[in-house]
Design brief:
The chain is mostly helical. The chain has one domain (2-59). 81% of the residues lie in helices and 0% in strands. It has three helices and no strands. The chain is globular.
Length: 64
């Protein structure tokens, strides 16, 4: 599931609104270590463009 989330986020990365929607879905679907891996990957790949959005989305959910 993590790989699918990464693929979708990569494909919609040119549109902020779509990226935000898909990131929120991905965060809901993933749990535990996969969610942490997704956050690290997102920050590595998209921090310059969407760093604020990524941090805001992940701060709204428990990172357990």
């Amino acid at each position: 599931m993590l790989d699918l989330c990464k693929k979708v986020l990569s494909r919609v990365s040119s549109d902020r609104k779509l990226f935000a929607r898909e990131l929120a879905k991905s965060v809901r679907y993933l749990h535990g270590e996969e969610r942490k891996q997704l956050k690290r990957w997102c920050l590595k790949m998209f921090a310059q463009r969407y760093g604020d959005l990524i941090n805001q989305t992940f701060s709204q959910v428990s990172m357990a």
